């Protein structure tokens, strides 16, 4: 690859587009449809049409030639027995009788079509192509450019040599960069496809596909494109292919069906933690000491003992300290966690304890406690508790938790956060505090719950309500069986994986129940649904394929969209691109599940944190700032190996951000670098907030939002039309969004001169027409 030539020419081009001085962003009108169509139509020019091919049927070696230059794009495999060889002016075909497949190659206008037809009735795995190149352009997360000899990548693939393409790749292609051109292998989808990595003498891969015996689709199609060695050419060629397959839908088209989607344009991605309705500020601790022997507190202990996952031992242990007026931080946390926990219980109402319910509670009791919706149950429990404790012990019920929730949202809006997506860790957080949800909605924000239909536990519980369903038959009758006949375990091995094709009525039942009292959620986040954890189910009573699984996930996305929800999903792999509006996990995926220093060793500086927060705020897993090991940086964060492949395809289709475990502040020492890349890639910042963290990071969040929101509103109106390196070391990078909006990010350690503008290290320059804005991250870590 001649990077030097590309870098030099692009740097010269960029000088002609530089503005004159650093000013605020100017307002631009929405581009005409004609402009965006012009950006889109350019895609037709990237794939080379003048090429020839040569194939050896025995070894399936494939060579391509263009402009007199030839490359072996599929390396020879072990010779196979062939039969039925035929050659016409337009096609070559043959069969591999021992492998039970038929092969057809046909030269089309701008690509070589390779069709592999399976004739076996049972599961049948066929390997091809075997690729060996000096560099690979792969849609791992947002996109990676991987040299075949890079030490950290070799180490990574040595330990992760079996790659499930459906899970590992965000799009259905892979590209090899050779001396003369790039070759891109595009598939219809990556169902049942794998890669095996080899690291000696350097990095190479072999792809295989398993034809599932009961899958009616017996054909694997490759479309092989030749382009320049340029990630833009590769990505835009893939985009054109998706459009041709009618698998491309813009945000504008989605917003025509659901106008709420427009609220996502320019929105910060905020996970908001409000796990307590009753907070420390709401309790009058000295007054409580005199009341701690009242029957309600004994009843709370009985409920915890009978239904609590951890019992009542810790709760009982702190009651004497509270009675003695010695309720310090630990005692307060245990007490508050216990009271907020029992507010969730269907069994909370006890007529012998709650003898004088107020008017609201009385009406709900008359309705029948077992007939209440989930939100009504929480309302009943709140009124029962508040009425019994009285205003001598707590603030009035309408004030419970509002300082830590509604007041924070009000302050966000007042401070200048005009657009935000507010994600709640559970729908119960919203149902318990509907005033907060209404406040978010009234402020023009999107607000919605995290939800999951990936797993089911055998016994339903409020501790893990996303894995709990009223339907008692699902655990045995709607869970996935693998080829060996075993049930597939779910998260942490505690549950089973659900078959999405069998639970749509249960999805509707859950969602309908959550929305029964018209809580104003306007967004919904679906865990795992676009993360590639897709399955074939071999249960003889309900055999289903990966394609069936994806269709069922899209069906529930479309159902939620029909309810006016702005739908998001984990990761954002593009088999779900038409159904989702936003995705979390593509820009920074989960980093190294398998490293014990990060996951088990709590004494390690790399330990990412715990799932629980004793103070009811943000769990340390999401709020603790930690470094990552140097060996992981090339894999996950180093801009030298990152390329915006997904954005070059889907900038106007899906808004992508980080995985919630790795928000914009999570990685020690890399907050500034990641912010530069957020602007470069049009990636919304993500942050976990509670009352304390909002106060701590408020100044930085607000200052950044002033630039971010108008920037993204403009960037989403265009394709990402270009990505280029402006320096020899490839650490000064540029992206273009149409003709009048660009970002130049300097990841290097030296100043970069762009025309009359000096771009210091750790800064990015937004160029909008003849105006520029400098994003300075040099002090963001301090």
Automatic annotation (TrEMBL):
According to UniProt, the name of this protein is Lipoprotein
Query: What broad taxonomic lineage does this protein's source fall under?
Result: Bacteria, Bacillati, Bacillota, Bacilli, Lactobacillales
